[in-house]
Amino acid sequence: MEDLPPGFLSLGRGPRAPAFAFPTPPPLLDEIVEEILLRVPPADPALLLRAAAVCRRWAGLVTDAGFRRRYTARHRTPPMLGYIGGLVDNGDSARFFPTGAFRPRLADRRGYRAHDARAGRVLLNRIAPASESASESALAVWDPVTADRWDLPLLLRPQQVRSWNAAVLPCSRPGPGPGPGPAPFRVAFVGLDADEMFAHVYSSQRGAWGEAEATGDLPNDVPGDRIDETMAGAHAGDAVYFALAGGTGVVRFHLGARSLTVVPLPDRPYPARIVLRAMEGGGLGFAEVDRQSTLRIWAMDNAGQWAVTRAVELCTQLPAQVSSVYYVVASADAAGVLFLCTDHGLYTYDLQSRQSIKVWSNRFNDIFPFEGFYTPVLPRALTVEGPSAGA
């Protein structure tokens, strides 16, 4: 067969067989490529990373801040990419444990313990002696996707704080953040001193704590004189909730009204550890497991009344080797997944699919599910076309 120029196809086997030219199709418009990539399911972030590896043009599209905003707006509900835990035998670091394909560049934050995680950010609390470069910081916010960390200034109070809790939150009005990455953030801090309850809010856009936004007295008819610092808070609607020690009530910090109130929890005939969670529609709820390994989901209505919305006999849902469920460890609210401490290790339980997965042994100090969107973060040299670089 005679040699044909590139782009020609010969039909037949003889020397006189006709040849047809098939021109190379033009590349897809960036708008079309982006519309395709926006439909990549967020539960499988490796697909976006593979798309970014196709060429520099695609890498530039996937890593653009505008794409990240549109991707988040389209899918709305972030998947659970992993969880932050502190192992009992390694309590001087917060470690990221992936539950899927996503792997952070930096899995450990030594010298810190995780305190909260929400909206793609992790709130860290320093437990090691502060270095000279961070001597004025006790709390920090960490982004496992970008590996960025922001040290928060110390919150100064006229009196000693007896107990406190804090939560990292997305900003209600997006704007320029403290650096590259997702949207800016806030940290809501609620504490008790000798006289009152108080609340402050840190804004990454201002880079400072605000003045006391709310104060209030702890009612005498609510037992417990401190906030439970070991239990993660919940962000439901426009309020942040933190449990009081003893499990009798929660402190509600309404961000819009700047008010602090105590919400009593319902009377239950069995003592059980609770995990606060945001319910669908913006209401407050909590999960607990009783002595018979029955999971109960409670929800509070607009009138402040509590009711059980779901009850699950966990021993009939979990693998046969699990004979007892001790308590709920944590809740991934958006994903609808609970972490359960059992006699056979740590399990996740999906409230919708009812599937359970063993993720580790029961050797954790604390666990905070990490829910967020992953889009690749690549060096600029890999995403920008050079004068002689091809797509």
Description:
By secondary structure, the protein is mostly beta strands. The chain has two domains: 8-69, no CATH class; 77-371, TolB, C-terminal domain (Neuraminidase, 6 Propeller). The chain contains four helices and 27 strands. The protein has helices spanning 30-37, 46-52, 56-63, 65-75; strands at residues 8-10, 19-21, 80-87, 93-98, 108-110, 112-118, 121-126, 137-143, 148-153, 163-170, 185-192, 197-203, 208-209, 214-216, 234-236, 239-243, 249-254, 259-264, 274-278, 284-289, 294-300, 306-313, 325-332, 337-342, 345-350, 356-360, 364-371. Strands 10, 11, 12, 13 and 14 form a five-stranded antiparallel β-sheet that branches. The chain has a four-stranded antiparallel β-sheet with strand order 5-4-3-27, with no helix packed on it. A four-stranded antiparallel β-sheet has the order 6-7-8-9, with no helix packed on it. A hairpin with a 5-residue loop joins strand 3 (80-87) and strand 4. The longest helix has 11 residues, at 65-75. The two termini are 33 Å apart. 33% of the residues are buried.
Feature tags:
391 residues; mainly beta; Neuraminidase; 5-stranded antiparallel β-sheet; 4-stranded antiparallel β-sheet; 4 helices; disordered C terminus
